[in-house]
Amino acid sequence: MKSFLLRFVPFLAVGALCFAWYALRHSEVTEPKEVTSDTSDWSAPRETPLPHFAALTRPEADTDTPVVEIQGDFRETAWPVREFARQRLPLNSDGTLELVEGEHFTWPDEQCTGLHVWVKPTNSPLSHTEHFPLEYRYIGREAFQNGRGSLHAFPEAPPAPEAIVRLRPVPPPVHHWKSPEFVVPPDGKVTAAYGLLRDWALASDGKFIFEMRVGDEVVSGELESAADVTDTWHEVMLDLKRYAGRPVQIECEARAEKETPRQDSVQPFWSLPLVTGAPEPTEPRPNVVFIVLDTLRRDRVHTFGGLRENSPDIDAFSNHAAIFQNAISPATWTTPSHASMFTGALSWQHGAGSWFRGFTLDPHWTTIAELARDQGYLTAAFTEGGSLSGRFGFTQGFQQYSDGPVFEGPRSGVARLTLEEAWGWVHDKAAAPFFLFVQTYEIHAPYCSPAPLGVAYVNPEDGGSNCIEEEDITDEEIGARASRLYDGGVLYTDGELGQFLDRMDQSGLLDNTLVVITSDHGEEFGEHGGYGHTTHIYPELCHVPLIIRPPGGLETGRRIEALVTTRDLHATLAEYVGAPPSRVHADSQSFASLVRGDAQPSYDRPYVFCHLPQRDQDAALETGRDHEYNYYSVITPDLRYMITDHFWTLKQIGALPESTEADEWTEYAFDHRIDPDERQNLADEPGPELSALRTLLFEKIESDGELRHFFGSSESRPLDVSEESLQQMEALGYF
Fold first, then answer.
1. How many CB atoms lie within 10 A of CB 541?
2. Which of 421, 390, 380 has its CA nearest to residue 69?
3. Contacts 24+ apart (CB under 8 A), 649-652
4. Averaged over 631-653, what is the pLDDT?
5. 44-79+172-282 and 287-609: same fold?
6. In the chain, fewer beta carbons within 10 Å around the N or the C end?
7. Range with the poorest average pLDDT among 263-267, 383-387, 445-449, 640-644
8. Cα separation of 218 and 197, whole Å?
9. Residue 731 exposure: Cα atoms within 13 Å on the Cβ side
10. What is the pLDDT of residue 19?
11. Angstrom distance (rounded) from CA 382 to CA 294
12. Could you give the CA distance from residue 434 to residue 432 in angstroms, rounded to a whole number?
């Protein structure tokens, strides 16, 4: 069971917390809130064992560590951020906020010097969708008399009668961490990074000293908290060769240069040190490189029947890999689909991406990165944030998780930067078994064709533009242009991926590395009357490319016709990293036997599921009530049954006239043997096979407690979605 604190840390370390909609009605905001806190000593050494690699071993104890974000780069850290549950509190007419010890917070210990208070004024239950300026304040401990303190949050009448508030206790000026004792492996070294978390206002003259020590070896640095210092993690390394075979401990310390009144929110951190060295003389474990090319349609890859040869590097790579002809994504947009691949759970089971269930991936789910980490793998993820931001719980198990650089406007050319960052990490860590996840939105809308390769699909007669936003597709002609630019994005991304794989090959790493290339969903270009991937769950969206190259590669490419679901990558990769079966999601099956080409493969799924949960942002803002519609489908090699409450939801919010017939569940049935493109709905006369599939679908989602409508406030759960994350998701077209 993961610690209570870890449930909140990955996304509490960001710049703004958001609050739920309806669950806290205005009549409830003045009621006392139950608050929890970590009351452990600020400076006490952490009990969490040191991550092990090579000769180190890791006990079967609680291995969870806090995660801190600095400029989109999430790291496991040596000590936690302490923060109290967000609350909705009234603002007085003079702009003051009343805080009561024991009701709104408790002091973790006597070393706290005060509170940092984050205040977001609001008068709407849909506060997470509003773009209020963020206000940050400091209140010293001495300001509290008899447990009560008053913070003058605004210089005059507040912009709203209430505020969403979070409270962070100010730590003492010294932090210290000491690792468990371990024996240094041959060629051992320890790497770590230090940095300042400062997502709030800064002091002008603070300075912090950082030291990491092993025996007589010391590395140090210092950072000033002035606003002109770049926010980043600063990497350091200690060579431990002289200590090979000897027991040692690692000590990390961060301290303020002098004690001054703390009017800022700067906190110093050391990332959790990582020890690497020459591996023991045992059978080597394979590295894993898991690559998701976001929004890549299966039929735009030449290997899978694409008409254009816009994937030459992927095609060449597949010549020595297993090619899955019938891979189905569990969901048709980024957040739920990745959560399913990571955990093995169905998207409606884990709830990630559902606004009604908090949106983030709940920490009680075990991710494939956690399984790899606990087997002694170095773990890192290099993504492009947005709907896959570490703020949404995806950091679980990754010692380093990057949201990538922040881009203004189109992301044209971002894949190169992401893959270069990933290669830099591989180059540094290649001596130890590693698990690497890479994701790029390059192919995602806005549809761009970056130079030099992508411009092959830019038509000069189109005015020379090489980017089209999804929202700008207003007719079939623009849709056709967008489709061509999409292909240009595929060609560009293929070239950048090819360079990454060539580096892996030239370095000899492919001989001991399992490589997975897939997509989280496809894209629609008018095939069923829509564009993008948040309107339907037809084949152009559910069917994805999947290529798996085992260590050393196959002699020739092998095409696998079996129906698979990419959520089973959870169990498949768990088998390759040697994770105990007891920790793998019970309903996730490994298809490693298909990759190996076993005569009697153990993998067998007669049917799989594809799901779309989607929130109607405009309707929520217009009506003051939240709405989420769902598409559910079950798929066999020959058939598909699908249901949705989309039209019922539109009727409830008035988007459809009352006279329009919109049953609670609109149903669709397709027979792929006569209708592979799903144009002919057979739901009115489904026949025995489709009728049986209909029964299976309804029984499955009902047994999971899912057969209900997410409409209004009754199902809503508090959200932890920052303003920055909302803006990134808007840029990706999700609102």
1. 28
2. 390
3. 649/616, 649/709, 649/711, 652/627, 652/711
4. 90
5. no
6. N
7. 263-267
8. 23
9. 17
10. 27
11. 13
12. 6
Residue 49 has pLDDT above 70, yes or no: no
Q: Are strands 400-402 and 73-76 parallel, antiparallel or unpaired?
A: antiparallel
What is the Cα–Cα distance from 590 to 223, expressed in whole angstroms? 47
Task: Using the predicted structure, report yes or no on whether residue 181 has a pLDDT greater than 70.
Answer: yes
CA distance 515 to 504: 10
Q: DSSP assignment, residue 77?
A: B
- Could you identify the residue written with the tokens 């047994």? 703
The stretch 253-264 carries a mean pLDDT of 70
CB burial of 375-407 (b: ≥16 within 10 Å; e: otherwise) equals: bbbbbbbbbbbbbbbbbbbbbbbbbbbbbbeeb
Q: Model confidence at 16, in pLDDT bands (50, 70, 90)?
A: very low
Signed CA dihedral, 286, 331, 298, 486: sign only: negative
Question: Domain-by-domain residue ranges, the chain?
Answer: 5-39+83-169, 44-79+172-282, 287-609
Which region among 171-180, 516-525, 629-638 has the lowest average model confidence (pLDDT)? 171-180
Q: Determine the 3-state secondary structure of 212 from DSSP.
A: strand
Looking at the structure, give the CATH architecture of the domain made up of residues 44-79+172-282. Sandwich (2.60)
Report angle CA 107, 81, 370 to the nearest 5 degrees: 135
CA-CA distance, 726 to 734, in Å (whole number)? 9
Angle, helices 334-343/569-577, rounded to nearest 10 degrees: 40
- CA max distance for the chain: 82
Residue with tokens 């110093």: 268
Question: 472 pLDDT exceeds 90?
Answer: no
Tell me what pLDDT residue 160 has.
83
Residue count (the chain): 735
What proportion of the chain, given as a percentage, has pLDDT over 70? Answer: 79
pLDDT at 105: 92
Tell me if residue 313 falls in helix, strand or coil.
Answer: helix
Peptide bond into 121 cis (omega under 30): no
Contact 442, 415 (CB under 8 A): yes
Distance, CA of 175 to CA of 80 (rounded, Å):
11
In the structure encoding, which two tokens stand for residue 667, read together?
């149903």
- Beta-strand ranges (E) seen in 329-417 are 378-382, 400-402
Least confident of 150-154, 169-173, 387-391: 169-173
Q: Read out DSSP for 140-160?
A: EGGG-BTTEEEEE-SSSS-SS
CA distances for 711 relative to 249, 335, 613, 623, 708, angstroms: 55, 21, 12, 12, 9
Amino acid identity of residue 527, one-letter, is E
User: Measuring CA to CA, how many Å separate 735 from each of 71, 479, 620?
Assistant: 24, 19, 11
Cα separation, 355 vs 21, in Å, equals 10
Model confidence pLDDT, tens digit, residues 119-142: 888 776 565 555 566 666 788 899
Characterize the bridge pairing of strands 207-214 and 67-70: unpaired
Token couple for 139: 């209140």
Element housing 287 (H / E): strand 287-293
User: For the domain 287-609, what is the CATH superfamily, name and number?
Assistant: Alkaline Phosphatase, subunit A (3.40.720.10)
What are φ and ψ of residue 607, in 5° steps?
-155, 155
544 CB-near residues (< 8 Å, 6+ apart): 296, 297, 298, 327, 328, 329, 518, 519, 520, 521, 522, 566
Average pLDDT, the chain: 82
Distance CA 276, CA 238 (A): 11
